[in-house]
Structures are given as C-alpha cells and as structure tokens.
Specification:
Layout: H1 4-8, E1 18-27, E2 37-40, E3 45-47, H2 52-66, E4 73-79, E5 91-99, H3 101-114, E6 118-125, E7 128-135, H4 145-156, E8 160-164, E9 172-177, E10 183-188, H5 192-201, E11 206-212, E12 226-230, E13 246-249, H6 254-267, E14 273-276, H7 280-292, H8 297-300, E15 303-304, H9 317-347
Parallel strand pairs: 10-11, 10-13, 11-12, 13-14, 14-15
Antiparallel strand pairs: 1-2, 1-5, 2-3, 4-5, 6-7, 6-9, 8-9
Helix pairs in contact: 5-9
Length: 350
C-alpha cells in the first residue's frame, strides 16, 4: 500500500514543510515494498515504510532535511544488515523529497481530484525530483514505451514500479498507483460483528461498501476506504458492487439476509465469495428456502455459512471478525497466486 489515505487525513498547512519518504528500489527481503510512503513533519509522521531502525533513520534524516534549507531531495541507499540492527538481509533505496506546505496541499488536492483513476509519477535524476499526475487519457502521450506501459498497468492495478531511463541509469521514474485496493468487500450489516470486521479489514489494502438500514448504528468515524450506505433496500446495492467482490451478509434480520442472498444468486455470477453469518441450522433453513424459490444445489452452494475459519471459531465479535478477515485474506492471496500462475503458464505456452 502507498499509505495515501493515512497521509491525506493527517496533514494540515500549520504543519509547515514536510518530507515525503518513499520506498524506492528494493533487493531481497525488505519490510515494505516499493511505493510505501511516509510523510514527516517537524512534529509528527503519517504512514509507515516498515518500522524498526530503518524507519527511525529515515525520520531522523527527514527532520535534518527540514532544518537544512539547502536540502531538497536525497536518496538513502541502505543495506538491511547489522549496521541498521535489522536482519532482513535485503537492500532498500529510500527516496526523500522535501515539500513546502503549499506543495503538499497542492499534491493532495490533485490526488483527491484524480481519486483512484491515475498514477503519481516521481521523476528522479541527479538534479533532484519532480512530481506529475497522470490519468487514463494521458497514457498515449508518452513516447517512452516502458513508462507508458507501467502507467497503464498501475492505473488499473494497485502497487508501484520503477522505470529506469534508457539513456541515463542514474535517472528513473517511480510509478505509483493511486488505487490501494487489492480486493473489494460489500458488507451488509453494521451490528457488533460488522463494526469489528470493518475495524480489522479497513487497514488492509481493500475497499469496503458498508450497508445498513439504520443510520444510528454506524460509528461516528468511518475509515477513508469505507463507503457507508444507509438505505431501506440493502439488496439494491448488490448490482453496484465491483466484480470479484467479497460479499458478507450479517444484517439484524434473517429475512433480510435471505433477500440479499437471493438477489446475489440472481444478479451476480462474478463474486469472489458470498458469506453469511450464522449456524449450520441457519444454513439448512436458507438452503431449503432458496431451493423452494427455484435455485439448484450448485447455485446455492456458492453461499458459505457459517463463515470464518473452522479452527478460529470464537463467538465474541472480535474473534469472529479476525476469523472472517483471515479467511478472506487467504482466499484473496490464493486467487492472486492462481492468476500469477496462469500468466506464467500462458507465457511458457503450457
């Protein structure tokens, strides 16, 4: 994740200048991947590049830059070994770019306008760095084909990558997706388990649509990657969810749960998962009622109930949330691995 959401909600003009700290090129084992961001001001930090001695050193260097008017940009090349008291064994370049308060606000305002449909390009050379935002319509203007391809990839897929200049090996462009969401969740129900689930899931690289009929059931604070929807007809939100979404059904009403399940089976065939909170007894009742409504056994089997991992079967909301979130993350990782394996097999002509 690029940590944009963490950073955007923290910075205010009163903070003054700040240093944008970003993980650049990496080799071997490292705490975070290329593109992870942290913003450092004289008083606080937002985001993380992995913690530990590495992050402490980056913060120290960033604050030194803030007190040195001549320092605008630098790259720290750090081996993650004994000298840093870190045993990762890899190597990481830390990109450090000092911005005035108005530059930070201007960047964040442009990020908000472009939203998820674009990339941030950070061009680095011996002369320093400069930033540029690009959207889908900008892709054809790049003569540099590797850079154009990277932009196209990162507009549609989360993550970051580095494209080196073909003429100057000391120059490169960091291409960072503005979209942090690796997977998508539509959650029906804002009760105790729903709240616990959002608490566990929202720090992960996902987007969440959170649906309930009751406005006063939602907490006061909603994470930036969560979209709250209050509606008298929760099932209507099924159609608008993204393809390959994880659907979690846990409303205050079994009848409403059943209505949402029926809508899902009727309107979707592209879901990653449909999970319904409940017991084996509830599952049996739902299977019988759905069968009476004309669904065959194979279609009904798309619904998972109970939800979560069998060996993490606590009944407290936090325990259920951890179990369900772990199951979703495992399913997501397996899907990513299958997709990557299919690409490799296709490339090899298998």
């Amino acid at each position: 994740m690029s940590n944009w959401a963490d950073i955007l909600t923290v910075f205010t003009p009163e903070e003054g200048p700040a240093v944008l700290v970003t993980v650049g090129a990496i080799k071997g084992s490292t705490p975070r991947d290329t593109g992870a961001n942290m913003l450092v001001t004289t008083k606080r930090t937002a985001g993380t590049i992995g913690g530990g001695r590495l992050e402490y050193l980056a913060i120290e260097k960033a604050r030194a830059m803030l007190s040195d008017y001549s320092a605008d940009a630098q790259i720290l090349k750090l081996p993650l070994g004994p000298d840093l008291a870190q045993c990762c064994g890899g190597h990481v370049d830390i990109l450090m770019d000092k911005l005035e308060a108005d530059e930070v606000l201007n960047l964040f305002n442009r990020l908000n306008i472009l939203n998820d449909f674009g990339v941030l390009l950070s061009h680095w050379s011996k002369k320093g760095s400069r930033r540029q935002l690009a959207g889908i319509s900008d892709c054809p203007i790049y003569i540099d084909k590797p850079l154009q391809s990277a932009i196209e990839r990162r507009i549609v897929a989360p993550g970051a990558e580095i494209v080196f200049s073909p003429t100057d090996k000391a120059s490169f462009t960091l291409v960072q997706s503005l979209n942090n969401a690796e997977f998508h969740i539509t959650l029906f129900g804002a009760g105790h388990v729903g709240k616990a689930l959002v608490h566990v899931l929202s720090p992960l690289p996902c987007s969440i649509i959170w649906v309930d009929q009751r406005e006063d059931t939602f907490p006061d604070h909603i994470p930036s990657n969560v979209r709250k929807i209050v509606t008298d007809s929760p099932a209507d939100q099924v159609a608008g969810s993204l393809a390959n979404s994880f659907f979690l059904v846990m409303t205050h009403s079994h009848q409403l749960d059943l209505e949402i399940c029926e809508t899902l089976l009727n309107q979707r065939s592209d879901e990653a998962y449909i999970g319904v909170i409940g017991s084996k007894t509830k599952k049996a009742k739902f299977e019988k009622r759905l069968a009476l409504r004309g669904f065959d056994a194979g279609t009904i089997a798309r619904i998972t109930c109970p939800i979560g991992l069998d060996h993490l079967n606590g009944k407290r909301p936090a325990e259920i949330a951890l179990s369900v979130a772990t199951d979703i993350l495992l399913r997501h990782r397996r899907a990513v691995e299958r997709k990557a394996s299919t690409k490799v097999e296709g490339a090899n002509g298998i």
